[in-house]
Amino acid sequence: MGSLAGAARHRSRLGLWAVAALVAILTGTVFTAVALTSRPSPAKPATPSLLVSAGPRAVVLAYFSAINSRNWHRVWGLGGKNLSPSYQGMVAGYRLTAHDDVTSIKVRGDTVYVHVLAHQSTGAVQNYRMRYVVHRGVITAGHATLLGTS
Predict the structure, then answer these.
(1) Which one, 15, 58, 96, 116, has least CB within 10 Å?
(2) pTM for this one?
């Protein structure tokens, strides 16, 4: 009789292990699904650490690249948070922008001077002169002057 009781306990333990494994798999699947579908908070994006060593020029070029690819979380993280009063306001400010062309860029220390042609979805092209201050891989301040529209 001892062997029957031992076999029953063994099956019972196997059943518990199977249930525990299934719970672990399902829990991992849920966490993976949440991680893959959740978006980072615009209030606390990760600091673009690779751009810290690349310098101010690379940060500003990455900023415009993110605008052109409409990667608003990246734009926010690269400095949009310091240039706009809110995430939604920043995104709304680019609603007519089809593409930005950086036509010249000059760097003096942490300050980057940029000339940009902003192609609008309406067909208009706006000509801007901009100045950005970059610190530790993030644009911390900026100013744009509209030179004209064609």
Answers:
(1) 15
(2) 0.67
Residue 125 in 3-state DSSP?
strand
The CATH number of domain 49-149 is 3.10.450.50: yes
Q: What DSSP assignment string belongs to 3-54?
A: HHHHHHHHHHHHHHHHHHHHHHHHHHHHHHHHHHH----TTSPPP-HHHHHH
Domain range list for the chain? 1-38, 49-149
pLDDT tens digit at each of 150 positions of the chain: 555 555 555 445 545 454 444 444 444 433 333 334 444 444 444 445 455 567 999 999 999 999 999 999 999 999 999 999 999 999 999 999 999 999 999 999 999 999 999 999 999 999 999 999 999 999 999 999 999 999
Q: What is the largest CA-CA distance in the chain?
A: 95
Query: What DSSP element (H or E) covers 59?
Result: helix 56-68
The amino acid present at 56, given as its one-letter code, is P
The H or E element that residue 100 is part of is: strand 97-108
CB 73 within 8 A of CB 45: yes
